[in-house]
Design a protein that fits this description.
alpha/beta, globular, 17 strands, 585 residues, six-stranded parallel beta sheet, 43% helix
Length: 585
Amino acid sequence: MIQGNLLPDYIFESSWEVCNKVGGIYTVLSTRAKTMQDVMRDHVVFIGPDFWQDKENPLFVEDKKLLAAWRKQAAREALVIRVGRWNIPGRPIAVLVDFTPFYAIKDDLYGALWRDYGVDSLHAYGDYDEASMFSYAAGRVVESFYAFYLRVDADSPQPRVVYQAHEWMTGLGALYIQKHVPAIATIFTTHATTIGRSIAGNGKPLYDYLFAYNGNQMADELNVQSKHSIERQTAHHVDCFTTVSDVTARECAELLDKQPDVVLPNGFEMDFVPKGQKYTAARRRARRRIFQVAGALMGTTFPDDTLIVSTSGRYEWKNKGIDVYLEGIARLRDHAAELQHPVLALVEVPAWQAGPREDLKAALQAPASDDVAADAASGGKQPLADPFITHVLHEPWSDPATNFLRQRGFQNLPEDRVKVMFIPCYLDGADGIFDLHYYELLPGLDLTAYPSYYEPWGYTPLESVAFHVPCLTTTLAGFGVWAEELKAQRRNTAAGGPKDGDTAHCHLDTDGVEVILRTDYNYDEVADRIANEILGYAALTGKQVDAARKAAVALAGEALWKNFFQHYRKAYAIALQRAAERNRQ
């Protein structure tokens, strides 16, 4: 019998985002790695795609002595791999694999996948082939490692081994392991369902009609049959199926016809959040740079008490709530006379951009001083053309954010109490304008808003509160649901338990997070709520703001991986138990 708190002897995890920073799953894996390393040092192996090969990958440090004997065996099996360490806290072992040689047998692999598991690859397009070949290569890597180091004879106790695959891109490999290395227990984690994201992204109401949608039928209608098929069949055939929030668990039950076995909420580590005087200095530096850029762009000066509000994430106009965020900012202008502080609203989402604006770079060339106001004014007395965007866009006429700002008449005049700045680039420290990383700008913010319509978890609000910045999120975000439940528990504990008719409402100054009700049809209410929350936050006293920032950090502390790793232990136990039963049959 597998005990619920028994860890595997080895854990393999594969993801498109291992040593490949492209999205939120990178944050999930890279922040959890240290906790896993602390628990089972170097018995955790991450497998990712090798895109770099002859170029230096700053996220990967190759070590040709590490697992050297197995590397030779893998080469004999036609596996082109590099072994080293993921350059993150904990420095776990990482294996990067070149999957391109397997395109030659792609059709054979898809045929076997259809015969064994009923996966339809016939309608594949886009990144399906690339992801599937990586997934197969990752499965082969695990198979080779297991055979070389972990396989034992029938008279010896079998090592407890788990293979966890993330998102549909790794489904083929999970099913390959299930068939060819049955001693390994398999876990599949979907962070967002293909069909749910497609329904939401195509403007269809997802939540009110979720019970009525047929996942297979909608996949046909929205032309995502193959991705949906591999995701659905993997969920049904692995030993343990998981997802990241109760919001997505409901989605899986309806659209994949499979209730997840365990919900694995996404945790966080705060070891890279500056503390004390370092945080104060980071906040001062970030605000100074934001005011410098905005001042040069708009030809104006920003007072120190300007309230900096922001949203960020992938450029999914509706799903991430960028549309309703900007609508809320537009409506805030109607209350400009009531604002206690001027507002600078940022939109930090990477778009199809062609590099920094040369006129803005030139305006920023003036030497900096210790005076923030002087720095802000150093860009000149006149605003630049299009004084709301920092980088040049390809096809700006088709960009929804710039179109919205123009249609709603945003001019960012010196007298405007509400101004907007669109930053359409990855803040990687080398964007040509800010030249700071996202996490270096984050401390400079006063308030963030992530009014998501489709958000299985939501790392951006969690990162925000970890960096002392209160935030707005919604009831359709996994993080928002979790935060609301935690807040309710705290209220009940403080009050000695729930009371009949209790309608207590928590605010940013006491909780650090405000969770806005969002449905398929309450766009206007959400926009008004965003405007009102910003208006209210601008009216807080300094003492109340300090309380809000402290509450934000306290809430983030509840989402540390040391608190959430227990859910992974449960998933490991379930997978190992079912694998043991499967192998006894």
